[in-house]
Predict the 3D structure of the following.
Amino acid sequence: MPTQRRMRFVHGQLAWMLATIVALTLLGSLSYELFFVLSLIGLLIVTELTAPVNITPAWRRRLLWLIGLGLVGFAVIVVRRIVEILPPEVMPF
């Protein structure tokens, strides 16, 4: 049973990422940053939709590290975009 739930999670995440690639390609907006952000959103959604009611298995607790790294990557992308938007005279370096 635990393997079946784990595989359901993996299949859900892979389906989300594949749908993201197809949608971004059809819209002509495929970029690494956008794919990363949409995959992170998918990870958060699939994690919540497949969450067990009573017990949290060990593999789901390890997902917190992956989600944390994803949020750090998201913060880096946001900061890079903000720096691109700001005029050069505003930046102290």
In short: The two ends are 55 Å apart (CA to CA). Residues 36 and 73 are 9 Å apart (CA to CA). The chain has a mean pLDDT of 91. The chain has one domain: 2-85.
